[in-house]
Amino acid sequence: MKNIFVITLYSIFSLCGIKAAAQQKHQFAFSHNQFMLDGKPFQVISGEMHPARIPHEYWRHRIQMAKAMGCNTIAAYIFWNYHETKEGVFDFKTGNRNIAEFIRICQQEGLWVIVRPGPYVCAEWDFGGLPTYLLKIPDIKIRCMDNRYMAAVTRYISNVSKELKPLQIANGGPVILTQIENEYGSYGNDKTYLNTLKKLWQQNGINGPFYTADGATPYMLEAGSVDGAAIGLDSGSNDDDFAEAAKQNPDVPAFSSETYPGWLTHWKEKWQKTDTADLKKEIEYLLKNKKSFNLYVVHGGTNFGFTAGANAGSATQFQPDVTSYDYDAPINEQGQATPKYYMLRNLIGKYVPYKIPDVPAPVPTITIPPIALQPFTTMWNHLPVPVASPQPKPIEYYGQNQGLILYRTTLVGHKSGRLTITEPHDFALIFEDGKLIDTIHRDGGHWSVNLPKTTNPHPQLDIVVEAMGHINFAQYIIDRKGVTDRVTLNGMTLMNWQTYLLPLDEKMISTLKTGTASGTTNGIFFKGNFTLQQTGDTYFDMSGYSRGVLYVNGHNLGRYWNAGPQQHLYCPASWLKKGNNEIVVFDLLQSSAAMVEGKNTLE
Question: Against a cut of 0.85, is the pTM above it?
Answer without folding.
Answer: yes
